[in-house]
Design a protein that fits this description.
This protein has 617 residues and is α+β, with helices and mostly antiparallel strands. The chain has 19 helices and 19 strands. The protein folds into five domains: 3-90, GIY-YIG endonuclease, CATH 3.40.1440; 106-246, no CATH class; 256-366, Nucleotidyltransferase, domain 5 (2-Layer Sandwich); 394-549, 2-Layer Sandwich (Nucleotidyltransferase, domain 5); 560-616, DNA polymerase, domain 1.
């Protein structure tokens, strides 16, 4: 046993035998692991008493421990709550950390006189009702499609009352999937009553009461209102049909999450099936490293998962035992503000469901391992091909996009472990000059990127993290142009730079270096990786260029309106997101935009509605 471990063991043996949280730190005083225990003395001393029974992960962590701190709590439950809070705050590298990088989706019900229901990706302060967030785009789009069909609401782009009686109803009206408010046969009151019922259906996640609807249908029938009774009957049929389609797995437990863990060495996959009203409405999976003690890992996962999810079901069904089960149940119950049970089924349909969840976790893990194997091979090939000092785990790639120097923009994409890291992508508007000069544009982008690095280098996050490799969309001219920038920041010895050369069909042909070109056709996995990076950075740059150009054209049109300068044009676009929505806005809606006055709002409204006004005169 080395001297440091003896010192740490000696100190650990002086700890109290009380519940609490312990915090492991390395030589740089960075927190590398946070844990909890019923007995601080017993748990912490086990780390330093010898590594005979330690897993690879624990041995590696202990080898980096330079010091530790601890916090005594009154109970194991308090220790669990504190541990969860500290892990979320510090994100230690040896704890299980879940990256919640899925895109969120919301169901939006607008606040207009004639509201609409749609799926959106962002929640904004616009007075609308938002239901969500949902992590599954499929489930939220399916829910909206269902509610529009059940309640026969329009799914077109018509605006009411503006477009009432302006045209013939569409096909949906004739196939009985829309009651066509565009015909003028539906009053605003009737329309809003239907929207209110649809909203009730959505908030109930599809559990709209057929019993209540049947009562309503019978009352309408008794009152001789056969038209209303027929409408309710059709609605009941539609709900039953959709519910039958959704019941992939019929469950006796109405609300629950099912969790299973599949493992390969210390790599694991947690699979979650989410159920409401006896049917599965979503599933998620998380690939995690540092899986050592299965019971502890399950507990850590549950803590992390329900820290990033608002909804906690009445029952959490798991595949095996967890650590500190009673404390976890108490924590979940307090967070959910209701009694939560944790069940480990031994037989019956619940065991079958856990088995299905486990099989899905195994499949996801197998696919991940297969992808990871290909990506690892590609990085190894690339390292040898380019003569790099180490594998390029973190790669940045840059591309310039413009049309004859107009709307000059650049894009940066990041690949980590051979996979796109979209949260790290960046876009740049070229500001230093006008006209077309790809070399100067690339110099500006790289200069700005490393100016940000100097501000954030202590964080090792985002621009504060140095890439292992920079790839430029271009040849040796681009490399020469950029190399002097790295020399200016004294980083030329730390970061290799290469270019990605295309053929006349715009496909990857070779890698450029200052001395010439390196052919990559014979290196299959490396070629696939480089091609993927070049295609991705080109796609990202082109999309930004198109969006930037469209925004400039729209802004130019807005600038031609009396009283609308650059600032108000930007505010209008930010608020309404599109020129069509600006055209459709009322004077009151325009006045609600930051920086707009009544005079400016009237000016914008009149500009886009002159033709309509002249038609009505």
């Amino acid at each position: 046993m080395n001297v440091k471990l003896k010192e740490l063991l000696k100190r650990a043996l002086t700890l109290p035998s009380e519940p609490g949280v312990y915090i492991m730190k390395d030589q740089s005083k960075n927190i590398i692991y946070i844990g909890k225990s019923k007995s601080l003395k017993n748990r912490v001393s086990q780390y330093f008493a010898g590594d005979k029974n330690h897993t690879v992960k624990v041995r590696k962590m202990v080898s980096q421990v330079d010091s530790f701190e601890y916090i005594i709590t009154d109970s194991e439950f308090e220790a669990l709550v504190l541990e969860c809070s500290l892990i979320k705050q510090h994100k230690p590298k040896y704890n299980i950390l879940l990256k919640d990088d899925k895109g969120y989706h919301y169901i939006k019900v607008t606040s207009e006189d004639w509201p609409t229901i749609s799926v959106v990706k962002q929640k904004v302060e616009d007075g609308a009702i938002y239901i969500g967030p949902y992590t599954s785009s499929w489930s939220v789009k399916k829910a909206v499609d269902e509610v529009l069909k059940i309640f026969k609401l329009p799914n077109c782009n018509l605006k009411f009352p503006r477009d009432i009686k302006k045209r013939r109803p569409c096909l949906n009206y004739y196939i009985n999937q829309c009651f066509a408010p565009c015909t003028g046969k539906i009053t605003m009151k009737q329309y809003n009553e239907t929207i209110s019922e649809a909203l009730q259906f959505l908030k109930g996640s599809g559990s709209f009461s057929i019993k209540e609807l049947t009562k309503e249908m019978n009352l309408a029938s008794d009152s001789m209102d056969f038209e209303k009774a027929a409408k309710i009957r059709d609605r009941i049929i539609a709900i039953k049909r959709i519910n039958d389609k959704q019941k992939v797995v019929a469950q006796s437990v109405q609300e629950q999450d099912v969790i299973a863990l599949a493992k390969f060495n210390e790599l694991g996959c947690f699979e979650i099936f989410r159920f409401e009203n006896g049917r599965m409405f979503n599933k998620e999976e998380f690939i995690t490293e540092n899986i050592s003690d299965d019971k502890v890992s399950r507990t850590e996962f549950i803590q992390q998962y329900y820290s990033i999810r608002d909804k906690i079901p009445a029952q959490v069904t798991i595949d095996s035992e967890i650590d500190s089960k009673d404390a976890v149940i108490k924590w979940l119950s307090e967070k959910a503000n209701k009694r939560v049970k944790i069940k480990i089924p031994k037989q019956g349909e619940q065991l079958k469901l856990v088995s299905m969840c486990y099989n899905n976790a195994m499949e996801a893990l197998a696919q991940y391992k297969s992808r990871a194997g290909r990506e690892s091979t590609a990085l190894q090939e690339l390292t040898k091909l380019l003569g790099l000092p180490k594998e390029p785990i973190y790669i940045e790639a840059y591309d310039i996009s413009n049309i004859a120097g107009d709307d000059n923009v650049a894009a940066m994409v990041v690949f980590e472990n051979g996979k796109p890291l979209k949260t790290a992508y960046k876009r740049f508007e070229i500001k230093g000059f006008k006209g077309q000069d790809d070399y100067e544009s690339m110099r500006e982008v790289i200069y700005r990127r490393f100016c940000e690095y100097k501000k954030l280098e202590d964080t090792n996050d985002g621009f504060g993290r140095l890439p292992d490799l920079i790839l430029l969309d271009g040849g040796k001219g681009h490399i020469s142009a950029v190399k002097s920038i790295l020399e200016e920041f004294n980083l030329h010895c730390d970061i290799p730079i290469f270019g990605m050369v295309k053929d006349n069909k715009h496909k990857t042909r070779a890698i450029a270096e200052e001395g010439g070109e390196i052919s990559i056709n014979s290196n299959r996995q490396a070629f696939t990786l480089i091609s993927s990076i070049q295609d991705e950075v080109h796609r990202f740059a082109i999309n930004y260029h198109r969006a930037h150009r469209k925004k400039r054209v729209v802004s130019t049109e807005l600038n031609s309106i009396n009283g609308i300068g650059d600032s108000r044009a930007k505010s209008l676009l930010k608020h309404f997101c599109s020129i069509n929505r600006i055209k459709e806005a009322s004077i009151e809606e325009l006045m609600n935009v930051k920086g707009m006055t009544k005079t400016a709002a009237i000016s914008v409204y009149n500009y886009f509605n002159n033709d309509k006004n002249s038609d009505n005169s």
